[in-house]
Amino acid sequence: MIFALPSTTSVDDRESLATVLSTARRILVLGSPGSGKTYLSRRMAPKLALNHVELDDHFWVGPDRWMDPPAWRNHVGGLAAEKEWLIDGTYESTLELRAPRAELAIVIEAGRLSCLRRVITRRLSLVLEGQRHRAPGQRLDRRFLSYVWGYPRRVRPVVWQKLRQRGEPQNIVTLAGARGIDALLEHFPDR
Question: Do the domain assignments include residue 191?
Fold first, then answer.
């Protein structure tokens, strides 16, 4: 079943969504960098008593250094094999390892300008606040900004293709940016 927020308004749809959210034990949160994946995941995971796995914290092993591809695939496969999780991060090159195990996929569809603004704002706040406890992450360079800008056209179709390949049943929630995130959090069941 596919739910779209904030436009899912019928009582039956809301009740079905609440059931899916309250029973899913393996959840993917996907979207462009800066779409709000981590913001949403940090608020959802405690409500569902799920381990929040932020893929950025696993992928980046130093400033502008990431895990080599075979080790990364092996690591992600191990994360996906866990019994319960809420995995935050698109990383389309390993999505086929996670998607088949997911009971629910949440896809945030945010505008590219909003995503670029959030990416830049997040990086500046990390530098200004001296948050060195976080993984060093992606350099804010032309290549990364181009990835964010091109996400709707180049990456989004790949994400949806891999989600469709995971088989039935497909529980997918699409969120229309920040409004969709707020709508989901507002109607989220507490456990």
Answer: no
Identify the burial level of 29 via C-beta atoms within 10 angstroms of its C-beta, where 0-12 means exposed, 13-18 middle and 19 or more buried. Answer: buried
Domain span at residue 38 reads 2-186
CA distances from 40 to 62, 134, 191 (A): 25, 18, 17
Indicate the number of domains in the chain.
Answer: 1
Q: How far apart are CA 161 and CA 170, in angstroms?
A: 13
pLDDT digits (tens, 9 = 90+) for 132-167: 545 556 677 898 899 999 999 999 999 999 998 876
Determine the angle formed by the axes of helices 37-48 and 177-186, rounding to 10 degrees.
10
Q: Is the pTM of this model over 0.70?
A: yes
Residue 76, in any domain of the structure: yes
Rounded CA-CA distance 176/178 in Å is 7
CA 55 to chain centre: 9
Here the CATH number for the domain that contains residue 35 is: 3.40.50.300
**Pairing mode, if any, of strands 60-62 and 65-66?**
antiparallel
| Amino acid letter, 59 | F
